[in-house]
Amino acid sequence: MDPITGTAAGVPFTALPPADPNGARLLVGWHMLDAPRSNAAFAAALPMHGIPAWRVYLGMPMCGARMVDGTMAAVFARAEQDALRSYVAMMVDTAADEFPPALAALRDQLPIGDGPVDLFGGSMGGAVTLMTLARAEIPVRRAALVNPAIRARTVIALIEEFTGPYPWDGETEALADRLDFVARAAEIAGRAPLLILSGELDEPGMRADAQDLMSALRTRDATAELTTVPELAHPLADEPGIEPAPQLPVAKSVDDLLTAWFTA
User: What values do phi and psi take at 196, rounded to 5?
Assistant: First the structure.
């Protein structure tokens, strides 16, 4: 079946229906800010056709249909202006705030079941997934992360390579603490079984964060798995990553791992 596009409480989405769409469970994901950087492109990169569920890909703020002047320039300008307040925190908090009303709207629009949802996210979308788990507002069955942005400080360190040193102060230190999901592992543990997929060629800091989160969750007896994906760098698609594109072989490897996790 063809993808379904629309908006849910103002949030653009791409939905892939299962073979039997009526009453199927729901899997919701948030895309990266690297390629694929739109809901439509994310759906093409990770369609997970083998899962008997609605797969719904939500657009991040100012991405896809919500881009300013049809480009990502305004998003990248925010990263240069204030990488933490205007970029990382804005993206994660806004997307997490949008989710409960968007979920309610999806339940009105699509013939989905009313049980716990499955969640996944890539990179910054992974941070949205973790924030949603930490908030504990929505019952979650299973969750998965792909090259997730687990610590805001790690993301800022990567941005500093292009913008120069970030001007830390007491307020931003506190904000970074709130966006450190290793430190918030106690709020995440026990919420849902969690799979972390870490690209073999991803940024070293992000790979270290994935290991730290896994250790913190295991210390709290959470059901969690960490898998290294061979040959995977950070992106899952080729640039520019805005429009749907053929699935790359390494994305197919991620797709297979996610499919196995969410059909367990």
Answer: -115, 120
